[in-house]
Fold this protein.
Amino acid sequence: MFEMRYPAEITQHPEGKDWVVKFPDLQGTNTGADTLNEAISEASDCLGSYLAMLVAHRKAIPEPSAPKGKQRLISVPLWIAPKVALYRTLQEQGISNSNSELARRMGVSETIVRRMLDPDHATKSARLEEALRAVGKRLLVAIDDAA
């Protein structure tokens, strides 16, 4: 199971005013805000945008490491999580021409698959669930206590 949460280092700026967030597993992902709660919210947006960029540019999605020390786990936002899961599964299974192979398995056109893997295209959750089933996966949603 791929748990879609990445560890983040959230620290207060040495001058004590704002908060800085860095994801050790994702090079170049830094963000911040004036308050801790805003920084956590910004971290989620930053994470989603970074993963969307990786999918759009057909780059590998790094495996999240285990949190160390005081790192917090930040969940991949729901708006991109199913697309990341599908894209990552296609990579793991070595489906090199993912559009045509997935389209064949689903019985749909390659255009539909291309849109499903486009982070900027709104895709119905039922369609993404169908695609995940076609590659032997299922989408689970979990609710836990806010940190």
Observations:
- The longest helix spans residues 36-56.
- The chain has five helices and four strands.
- The mean pLDDT is 91.
- The radius of gyration is 17 Å.
